[in-house]
Amino acid sequence: SLVSSVSRASREKAAATSAVSYIMCRIIKSAAFSLPLLLSSSSKVIASAFLTNPHLGSTTTRRRNMSRVSAKASLDQEIESFVSKEGFGEVVSSKPMGSSGWASFRRVEVSDPDVPDFFVKSSSRSAKDMFEGEALGLKAMYECSQGEDGLRIPKVYHYGDYTNGGGSLLIMEYLQLAGRSDDRALGRAVAKMHLAEPTAEAGNPNGCFGFNMDNTIGGTPQPNGWTKGGSTQDWIEFFRDERIGHQLNLAGDSYCSKLWQNDIAPRLHTLFENVEVKPSLLHGDLWSGNIGSVEGKPTIYDPATYWGHHEAEWGMSWCAGFGKSFWDGYREVIPEDEGFLDRKPLYDAYHQLNHYNLFGGGYISSARGDLETLKRYLDKM
Fold it and tell me: Angle at CA 80, nearest 5°, toward 75 and 85?
C-alpha cells in the first residue's frame, strides 16, 4: 500500500543516516556543549579552566579570593548543618571534584558507616534556578526505578538555598560511575521506569502529562505545564504546543513553522489512531553521553524529566547508539506499538529543533526532513 511504502521509505532513510547522525552528534556535543555531571567517578574527570587576566589589579584579585573563601565557608557550614540535623554523625572529609561554568562539585564522607558518601553540587545562584528541577527529576526517576532490575538512580537527600543567602546546594548519593555495560539490562530497566504508575511519590498524583515545574533540555527552557487529563488527546495537545510549537517559536524558521501549522498539526491525531497513550516518566534527553553503569547496573543521568508518551524517549536515539541488545531488552517488557516508526520523525523533530536552537548549523535541515517525512505520510493516509 501507499502508506506502507512511506513507512518502508522512512525505515530505509533512518537506516542510511543513523551512523552519520550518531558520529556527528557525538562530535558536536563533545565540542560545543557540556552539561554538569550528576554522578562522578575516578574515570570521568570534571575539569574547569580558569583564564588569568593580567590587567586585573591586586585589589580585585584579593576580593575574588576572599569571595571564594567566604563561599566555601558557607558551603561547609550548610553541609555540616545537614549532616548533624539528619543524624549522620559528622563530616570526615569534603573533597573538591571540579566544576562546570555554573556549579561546583564535592564528595563528602560522614562518620556514620551506614550512610553513603554524598555528591554535593553548589552554586552562587538560587536553588530554584539551579537545582530544583534536577532534584525533582531525580526523585521521580528514583521512585520509578525501585527493584532489583531497575535503573541505578542516586537518592536525593536535600536541596535548597544557603541559610544566610548567597548560594544554594544539592546533596545526593555519591555513585561510582563507570562506562556503559549491559545494554539488554539497560533496555529492560528503562522499560520498567516507563511502566511505573504515576503516583504522588513520583510527583504525578493526577496521572497527567507534564511535570511539576518547567526545566531545561540542554540549555533550552522546556515548559512542562500539566495537562487536564492523561488521555491520548491530552498528549497530542501537549506535544503540539509545549514541545514542537515551543521549539519552532524559538527557532524562527518560517519554512518549518508553516509546514507544521498548515500540514501537520491539524492532522496530528491521525498518527495516534488505535494507540492508547499513557503517562510514562521520561528521562527526556537520553543520548549516549547520559548513560553509564554503577557496579554493573545501568544508570542514566542529566535528565530533562517529564511525564509523556514512552515513544518520545527515543527522539534522541540517533545519538544514543542503541543496538539489537538494547531493543531486545526493552521490547521484552514493552512491545512495539503499531505505527511506532511512522511517529518517530515527530519525536526526532523535537530534538533536532532543540539542537538547532542550541548549536545552529545543519540541524535545521534534519528537522525539516523529519517534518517533510511526516507530511508525506499524512498525505497518503
Answer: 130
Q: Is the pLDDT of residue 56 over 50?
A: no
252's grid cell: 524562527
**How far apart, in Å, are the Cα atoms of 255 and each of 13, 261, 359?**
21, 10, 19
Q: How far apart are CA 80 and CA 10, in angstroms?
A: 56
Which residues make Cβ contacts (< 8 Å) with residue 184, sequence separation at least 6? 325, 326, 328, 329
b/e code 269-307 from CB counts within 10 Å (16+ = b) = eebbeeeebbbbbbbbbbbbbbbbbbeebbbbbbbbbbb
Cβ–Cβ < 8 Å for 275, 338: yes
Active site residues: 285
Q: How many CA atoms lie within 13 A of 312 on its CB side?
A: 27
Nearest to 129 by CA among 49, 203, 51, 221: 221
Question: In this structure, what are the phi and psi dihedrals at residue 152, rounded to the nearest 5 degrees?
Answer: -90, 100
Q: Give the per-residue SS3 of 7-28.
A: HHHHHHHHHHHHHHHHHHHHHH
| C-beta separation of 26 from 319 below 8 A | yes
Measured in degrees and rounded to the nearest 5, phi and psi for residue 167 equal 170, 180
Q: What integer is the mean pLDDT of 43-62?
A: 41
- pTM of the complete model: 0.82
Amino acid in position 66? M
In angstroms, the CA 336 to CA 88 distance is: 46
State the Cα–Cα distance between residues 135 and 259, nearest whole angstrom: 37
E strands present in the chain = 91-99, 104-110, 118-123, 156-161, 168-173, 215-217, 220-222, 280-282, 291-294, 297-300, 306-308
User: What whole-number distance in Å separates Cα of residue 351 and Cα of residue 370?
Assistant: 11
- Asked if the model's pLDDT at residue 44 lies above 60, the reply is no
C-alpha grid cell, residue 46: 570534571
From CA 327, how far away is CA 311, in angstroms rounded?
13
For residues 20 and 13, give the distance between their C-alpha atoms in angstroms, rounded to a whole number: 12
Using alpha carbons, list the distances in angstroms from residue 335 to 137, 182, 310, 324: 26, 20, 11, 14
> Is the pLDDT confidence value at 267 over 50?
yes
